[in-house]
Amino acid sequence: MKVLIAVDPSDIAEKAFDWYFKNIHKEGNEVYVCHEAEQPDLPTVFFAGGASFPAAEIGRIMTDHNKKKNELENTYTMKCKSYKIKHHIDIETTQDKPGVAICKKAEKVHANMIVMGTRGMGAIRRTVLGSVSDYVLHHSKVPVLICRGQDQ
Amino acid sequence: MKVLFAVDGSEIAEKAFDWYLENVHQDSNFLVIVHGRENPQIPTLNFTEGAAFPSDEITRIMKESNQKVDALVDKFSMKCSEKKIKFKVALEGGKPSKPGETILAVADQEGCEMIVMGSRGLGTIRRTLLGSVSDYVIHHAKIPVIVCPV
């Protein structure tokens, strides 16, 4: 079975991954770890005052963004290797909303199931179910496992 | 691991069950099958014309309802027995109008670690992507939930 695990840098995502591996994973399952990062907000260029192109600022933002992506990729590559899981890691930047991107990805890799946490890094911490999980739950064509953390 | 499986008479529930058995079930799992039995609609009594108590009607309705539930229980019990799965059936008379609450109450009671259910059941609004019961359970469960779409 092909399983798509949607992650982000949060603890919840990591716990969801571990829980999946401990309780659901079967040998022979192929795991696709994906993160659909939204294009970071780049400062708009103001020509009003003849301001110069904020190249340094933009460079910094992109470097930061890529650094986070790399860290995420390393974290999950290491986990998959240590659990000895057949895996593919896809950390991408997308123009689509994360929910849409995740569903598209699931279709692309022919995933049989999607695994994700209830919430991620979103600002509204009080919500029971984050907007991305909510979207995927309502639009996925395959079963979705929503991993609620034990401490939530 | 104890897994709670919420079923109703729908095909979706059956497909979700088969999918679960094929892809997720581990031999050490123990299944708790829950069906929130709804009390059937019993004809209300009209005293206007001094009508007699429609006991025959009521008996018939109750019998039909019980037969449906028994058929459901048998179907899933057979599936489990065939595949030699450890299971038990929980028929909760709970609040008939709140299957979501019933499902969570049983999960709690039985110490289940995961819930599996279809996205929709026999509910009337067929256009919805996620039925009200699945929606309720997702938002209120304290344990992981797998929702199987149509």
Kindly describe this structure:
- Chain B: This is UspA domain-containing protein.
- The complex is a heterodimer of chains A (152) and B (150).
- Chain A has 152 residues and is of the alpha/beta class.
- Chain A is built from four helices and five strands, in the order βαβαβαβαβ.
- Chain A has a single domain, classed as HUPs (Rossmann fold).
- Helix content of chain A is 41%, strand content 21%.
- In chain A, helix 4 links the parallel strand 4 and strand 5.
- In chain A, helix 3 crosses helix 4.
- The longest helix of chain A is centred in the middle third of the chain and has 29 residues.
- Chain A starts with a strand and ends in a 5-residue tail after the last strand.
- Chain B is an alpha/beta fold and 150 residues long.
- Chain B has four helices and five strands; from the N terminus they run βαβαβαβαβ.
- Chain B has a five-stranded parallel β-sheet, sandwiched between helices.
- The two termini of chain B are 26 Å apart.
- The chains are: A alpha/beta (152), B alpha/beta (150).
- At the A-B interface, helix 1, helix 4 and strand 5 of A face helix 1, helix 4 and strand 5 of B.
- Strand 5 of chain A pairs antiparallel with strand 5 of chain B, so a sheet runs across the interface.
Order of helices and strands of chain A: EHEHEHEHE
Strand arrangement, major sheet of chain A: 3-2-1-4-5
Order of helices and strands of chain B: EHEHEHEHE
What percentage of amino acids of chain A are in beta strands?
15-25%
